[in-house]
Amino acid sequence: MIDDPPLIRLRRTVPRPTPEQLAALRGTPTGYVCDALHGRASLGIAVKPVVPEQAAFCGVALTIHTGPDDNLAVLAALPLIQACDVLVVAADGYRTTAVVGDLVLGMARNRGAVAFVTDGCVRDVPGIRDVGLPCHAAGVVPDSPVRNGPGTVNLPVVLSGRTVRPGDVVIGDGEGVVVIPFDAVDAVIARLEGIRASEADLMARVAAGLGVPDWVEALHRDGRVVED
Length: 228
Known about the structure:
By secondary structure, the chain is α/β, with parallel strands linked by helices. Helix content is 30%, strand content 23%.
């Protein structure tokens, strides 16, 4: 016989990026982060900003697993929130009831959270706008969840097929949400310098009239393009 699980399993202490690392990443477009992680870093098309003008954030993943139709773990996580935390809530993609509304988001903001991300739904959009905490979700629905558990806090979770671990860096903007694994933060920061420079150079060339990049011209010249 399998014993019933505890209502909540959690870790109180997890690795965290430094303030200097967060400062180096803050304001980086999500597309640049994906480029620095070889093209794959986002939570996909389902997780989008609920209030588009409040989409941007950069912070540290405080991971929560609620399971479907439950949000007890989100409430249990409130005492653990530190400044710059992003509540990353895995609801197993359940979209029949909301994970949270404006009141819980207000509590998270008051504790120092900088964003809320879930593969489930939220509700109370006018209130979320007033709270001002960036919120990315898979949808909006007015139905409310229960608080029964079980759930986890600060243990690895999976959203949209991507594993998120406590202490990972999470960045959002109008295009979506990306995750930088904790142990890849320094490498991403190093790669971003070249990515920003390349993007700036190409943008300047496009603004100056560029229509076909040199490498595309070469593609046509050297036999790699063949007429049928």
